[in-house]
Amino acid sequence: MDRPYQDRFRQLGLKIAYYRKLRGMTQEQLAEAIGMSAVFLSHVEAPGIDRTVSLGTLFAIAEVLDVPVYKFFLFDEDL
Questions:
Q1: FRET pair for 63, CA 20 to 30 Å: which of 5, 26, 36, 56?
Q2: CA-CA distance, 68 to 73, in Å (whole number)?
Q3: 0.90 cut: is pTM over it?
């Protein structure tokens, strides 16, 4: 992973987990809905694992969770 953006990817994963839980979905349910494995999704959400996510996957996650995609990019330092 590109080190300068490591914190942003971590925050992105935590936001995905937050909205997923807010919708009452498990990792398995979300992963199935976007056509990915639950292991992939768990790596994206885990703060200690360096895992990136493509824009296409992020758009799919946002659609399934019914969250405007821009909300995933509101990082702590932007608030």
A1: 5
A2: 10
A3: no
Mean pLDDT, the chain, integer? 91
In SS3 terms, the chain reads as CCHHHHHHHHHHHHHHHHHHHHCCCCHHHHHHHHCCCHHHHHHHHCCCCCCCCCHHHHHHHHHHHCCCHHHHHCCHHHC
Residue 50: Cβ within 10 Å count:
12
C-alpha to C-alpha distance for 58 and 42, rounded to whole angstroms: 14
- Residue 15's pLDDT band, with cuts at 50, 70 and 90, is very high
Q: Provide the pLDDT for residue 79.
A: 45
